[in-house]
Design brief:
CATH topology of the largest domain: Nucleoside Triphosphate Pyrophosphohydrolase
CATH superfamily of the largest domain: Nucleoside Triphosphate Pyrophosphohydrolase
Helix content: 10-25%
CATH class of the largest domain: Alpha Beta
Oligomer: single chain
Length: 210
C-alpha cells in the first residue's frame, strides 16, 4: 500500500482501517483529505501521461503533436493551454485549489480554470470543456484578453487568457480539484510570493490585473 498524501505524524494518530480505501475527511490539525490507496488506484487519480496535445509555434499554428508526459518532462516543447479568470460582480476572483497528485504545481491555488488544448480541438472548444469539467459552469461569456508564452521549470506553454463575470453557482470538480473559493484583491496581493499560488498565476495576475 502507498500513502497518497503522506504525513507520518498524522498517520500515527489516525485511527483508520488501513485497507478501507476510504477518505479520511479531516484531522484535528488540518482540513486536507488523505487517502490510502494501492498503486493501481493512485495511477487512476494521476494525470494521463499518454494524453495527446498539439505542438504549436508562437502564432498558435499546429505543427505536430506530443504526449502529456513528453510535454512535462523538461522538453520545453510549446503546446497550447487555456485560462479563464472568473470574477464575480463584486470584483472577487475565483481560484481553484490544485490537488496533491497533479504533476505540475501540486497543492497550490491557481487560476479558476486552466487546461490543455487536446489534439484536434480548438481553443474555444477546450475552454468550454475545461470550464464545465473543472467548475461545472456552462452559461458564461468569455472575453479574450491576450495570449503569451509561459516557460516553467518543466514545460513551455502558449497561454490563451480569458476572463468572465459570473455570479452563479460554482461547483468545483471533486475528481480534478481540491475545491476553490473567491478571493478579494487584497487577499491575493497580501499572499503573493508566499508559495500559496502557482508562479504562473502570480505572473499572469500581476501583468494583467495588477
Amino acid at each position: 500500500m502507498m500513502l497518497f498524501h503522506s504525513i507520518k505524524e498524522e498517520i500515527m494518530r489516525a485511527s483508520v482501517e488501513f485497507f478501507s480505501n476510504k477518505p479520511i475527511k479531516s484531522f484535528a490539525q488540518t482540513n486536507r483529505k488523505y487517502y490510502f490507496c494501492n498503486e493501481n488506484q493512485m495511477r487512476k487519480d494521476m494525470d494521463n501521461q499518454e494524453e495527446i496535445f498539439p505542438v504549436v509555434n508562437e502564432q498558435g499554428e499546429v505543427i505536430g503533436k506530443i504526449t502529456r508526459g513528453q510535454a512535462h518532462n523538461g522538453s520545453k516543447i510549446l503546446h497550447p493551454v487555456v485560462h479563464l479568470h472568473v470574477f464575480n460582480s463584486k470584483g472577487d476572483l475565483f481560484l481553484q485549489h490544485r490537488p496533491a497528485w497533479k504533476d505540475i504545481q501540486p497543492d497550490k491555488w491557481d487560476t479558476a480554470t486552466g487546461g490543455h488544448v487536446d489534439y484536434g480541438e480548438s481553443v474555444e472548444e477546450a475552454l468550454y470543456r475545461e470550464v464545465k469539467e473543472e467548475l461545472g459552469i456552462t452559461d458564461f461569456t468569455p472575453v479574450f484578453i491576450c495570449k503569451y508564452v509561459f516557460e516553467g521549470k518543466r514545460e513551455k506553454e502558449l497561454v490563451y487568457v480569458h476572463k468572465t463575470i459570473y455570479d452563479g453557482a460554482v461547483r468545483p470538480s471533486e475528481t480534478e480539484l481540491e475545491g476553490g473559493r473567491f478571493w478579494s484583491r487584497d487577499e491575493i496581493i497580501s499572499n503573493m510570493g508566499k508559495g500559496i499560488f502557482t508562479p504562473n498565476f502570480e505572473d499572469e495576475y500581476s501583468k494583467i490585473f495588477g
